[in-house]
């Protein structure tokens, strides 16, 4: 305790009127974001269909989960994600996204397939022009949001996409962008900042339950079903009025 009425030495900082010195951290450490990790298949050139076959696994003797579940690690599952954009870079582009998390059946051809039109606004309400890159990134975000409850069953998720834009930037640059005020290495604003921030929030949601998110860049031929439904969404799904967060479980 300091007597606030006592004389202060010359050049000393002012003492608060309460008489209590308050320590102020003038250089706080920036918060380190939780980032997705790159998935490295244990067998070179193995397809995701072999490494993550469609199957049903029982948990806790009663819970049956149908997913693309790891053949080597049954605590890990995979989801395919892709985006599509018609008239990309032209006057009136339209885009869609989709993800696939289990095989369909003859009586339910859309089972395990979730898709939607890409919003033309950001979460903040600002207008955003549809592009193929935004659609690819939106597909990954939607998959992590929709399958969030799988955190209670699995220890990690692998999002398989053929988008080099999503995987390379998420692994190599996303952390730097976040800590650098969302400017790139050239000092310019990061493109699609709103979606990159949404991706960080989605990954951090999984991390709060001690679950890890991996990204696996796969060949486009291995991602045909997600691509097909993303393209179908462009022409068959209504345009959302606002940007929405996807929640669901089935």
From TrEMBL:
It comes from Aspergillus sclerotiicarbonarius (strain CBS 121057 / IBT 28362). The keyword Nuclease applies. Its EC number is 3.1.26.4. GO terms for biological process: DNA replication, removal of RNA primer. It comes from the Eukaryota. One of its GO terms (molecular function) is RNA-DNA hybrid ribonuclease activity. It catalyses: Endonucleolytic cleavage to 5'-phosphomonoester. Keywords: Endonuclease, Hydrolase, Metal-binding, Nuclease. Belongs to the RNase H family. This is ribonuclease H. Residues 73-235 form the RNase H type-1 domain.
């Amino acid at each position: 305790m300091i007597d606030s009425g006592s004389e202060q030495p010359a050049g000393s900082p002012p003492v608060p009127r309460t008489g209590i010195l308050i320590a102020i951290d003038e250089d706080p450490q920036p918060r380190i974001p939780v980032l997705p990790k790159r998935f490295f298949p244990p067998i070179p050139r193995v397809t995701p269909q072999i490494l993550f076959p469609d199957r049903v696994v029982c948990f806790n003797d009663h819970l049956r989960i149908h997913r693309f579940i790891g053949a080597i690690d049954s605590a890990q599952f995979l989801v395919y994600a892709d985006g599509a954009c018609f008239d990309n870079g032209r006057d009136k582009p339209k885009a869609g996204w989709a993800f696939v998390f289990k095989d369909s059946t003859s009586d339910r051809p859309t089972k395990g397939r979730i898709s939607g039109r890409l919003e033309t606004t950001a979460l903040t309400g600002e207008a955003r022009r549809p592009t193929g890159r935004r659609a690819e990134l939106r597909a990954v975000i939607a998959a992590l949001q929709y399958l969030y409850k799988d955190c209670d069953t699995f220890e990690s998720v692998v999002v398989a996409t053929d988008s080099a834009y999503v995987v390379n930037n998420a692994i190599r640059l996303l952390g730097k962008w976040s800590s650098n005020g969302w400017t790139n290495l050239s000092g310019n604003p990061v493109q699609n900042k709103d979606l990159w921030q949404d991706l960080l929030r989605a990954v951090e949601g999984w991390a709060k339950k001690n679950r890890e998110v991996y990204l696996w860049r796969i060949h486009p031929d291995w991602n045909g079903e997600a691509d097909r439904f993303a393209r179908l969404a462009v022409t068959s799904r209504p345009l959302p009025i606002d940007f929405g967060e996807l929640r669901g479980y089935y």
